[in-house]
Amino acid sequence: MPILQAPIRILGCGSPLMGDDGVGLKVIEALKKTELDELDGLDIADAGVCGLDLLNLFDGASKVIIVDAVLTGNRKGSVHRIEGRDLIEGTEPHTLVSVHDLTITDVLRIGEQVQTLPEIVVIGIEIGELATEISRDISPEVLGAVDETIKLIRKEVSSLF
């Protein structure tokens, strides 16, 4: 498939059992209820807790938008748009700390060594702190970021459709 016809993938990362960490999955759930889910050439998927398996989901894509919970020290519920290239090269002014075993930065740096990466954009939603107990509840501040995240995703894909 030529790169111009390759799909754009939106991947939500997180654990639905770790409170605010599940926000990436909530964004995917909400996106699947919009007209974006019907667009040919746009894939919307739950990527679970990411890890190196995330690299398999990059195959055949022209652009990948990753949505995940992050810890950056900013206001809980704030939304960050970060170029994947900036994470790989270490030029991002603040360090993203994923709540998973491997950070997205780790996965991208490994991926760059073993495959050709598509254009990557990370949309991180600040969760403020790690969950210490199993919970399906997402705090109101973090849940409130879902709409802003969807607007940002629409902006990312609008020029391509």
TrEMBL record:
Q: Does the record's keyword annotation contain Lyase? A: no
Domain of life of the source: Archaea
Matches recorded under InterPro entries = Pept_HybD-like_dom_sf, Peptidase_A31
List the Gene Ontology MF annotations in alphabetical order. Answer: aspartic-type endopeptidase activity; enzyme activator activity
Give the record's GO biological process terms. protein processing
Q: Which UniProt keywords apply?
A: Aspartyl protease, Hydrolase, Protease
Q: NCBIfam families from the entry?
A: hydrog_prot
Q: What protein family is recorded? A: Belongs to the peptidase A31 family.
| Name listed for the protein in its UniProt record | Hydrogenase maturation protease
User: Organism source for this protein?
Assistant: Methanosarcina acetivorans
